[in-house]
Amino acid sequence: MKPITGLRRDHAAITVMMGVLEKLCAKCWQGEEINPNHLDKVVEFIEVFIDRYHHRKEEELFAALRKAGIPLDGGELGTIPEEHASLRRYIRGMREAAVDYRKQPVSGMYKFFINAREFGSVYLRHLDKEKNMLYPSAEWVLTGGEQEVLGKAFERIDGETGPARLVEFHLLANRLKDIYC
Ligand SMILES: [Fe+2]
Ligand SMILES: [Fe+2]
User: Has residue 90 got a pLDDT over 90?
Assistant: First the structure.
């Protein structure tokens, strides 16, 4: 599989999970109870699949683009690398909230809602910029050889994350979609 195709496949699972997150926020807002295990799983997906796996691959892509003469330091494309770092505070907030929720459901739910809404509003736009600008630019600018090198880096990251765990994340997104969407 070509490396950018792999990133698009990640986005498909991420988009499913963003839909689940939106439904969870609506439930929080209505004061409905949420299964704490589901909250943990959603946060694990965001921490591991999105931040440690997908973003790590994209950081390899940023490096490849810079090497190919695309600086990524201004305009709409330039905000993409910064957003990976700035979103981490909301991811941390969601993790803390999921832990708090088991002890103090009202404040835990409120904290989860605030962080998830902020994360969602920035991240949906982020995904859109990547889909419409970053990925097409990469396919246009990177040569076949450069894409092959990038693909090898992605294979290494796949191996470190664990292929079985990756399959599990895709299944999790669909399982939660069946419950909440
Ligand atoms: Fe990204
Ligand atoms: Fe992405």
Answer: yes
